[in-house]
Amino acid sequence: MTERPAAQLLPPNADGRRFSADRTVRLGDVDVSGELRLDAVARYLQDVASDDALDAGLSNAMGWVVRRTMIRVDRPCALNERVTLTTFCTGVGRSWAERRTTITGAGGVAVEAVSLWVQIDVESGRPARLGPAFFDLYGAAAGGRAVSSKLGLPGPSSGAERRRWRFRETDLDPFDHVNNAAQWAVPESLLDGRSRLGTTELEYLAPIGTGELDLLVEGDAAWLVGDGRTLSAVARTRSG
Fold it and tell me: How far is the CA of 116 from the CAs of 105, 112, 172, 213, in angstroms?
């Protein structure tokens, strides 16, 4: 059975590969209260995924793009806190893989995340099939679990509030698109001083540049729209 991607926070398989890295929460990662922002969490997830792929010796270690991420914050990280990120594979498809990451710390930090990553050919930008080397490294962790690449968040309704949004040139990555972590500024903007506790989902539907966009907001959901096309979707479920 093929399952919906990046929607479950599964534990690691006992025999599968796990990769861990430590880091300190720095000043540029936190808000005015000293709490780790969601866009910084997304950057941590991106960094530990790249570190894992490089450490594993994947020939296409940097040839991956994120299609969907779900982050659950049970207890947030704080400025100067030392945290450990542990990441592992929990499912695969033809050209994609699901990656789970946990963030823990001595202060009781508890952040969980899962993302759908698609492998691409860096020359053409097209999806590239996972090869034997990938399964040799991550097959045991995936445990035969198959995941779809199909995204599932609903589109905006006609009653959504319309705002203006623009990313910065510094948000672009080497693919000349807004980096996946930078897009977490959108759910950050929905908090309006409220707690980050709970679950946030973000789906990347199309590449985004630095032109002016429409941000449609309805409750705890939001969508970035450009040229009449929905480019990304956000949904939050609060627990605090």
Answer: 25, 14, 20, 25
> What distance in Å separates the CA atoms of residue 97 and residue 88, rounded to the nearest whole number?
10
Chain segment 15-46, per-residue pLDDT in tens = 899 999 999 999 999 999 999 999 999 999 99
Domain extent for 116 = 2-147
**167 and 225: one domain?**
yes
The reply to whether 185 falls in a domain is yes
Q: How far apart are CA 191 and CA 200, in angstroms?
A: 11
Which structure tokens are listed for 218? 């309805």
The alpha carbons of the chain give a radius of gyration, in whole angstroms, of 17
Contact 156, 215 (CB under 8 A): no
Per residue in 200-210, pLDDT (tens digit) is 999 999 999 99
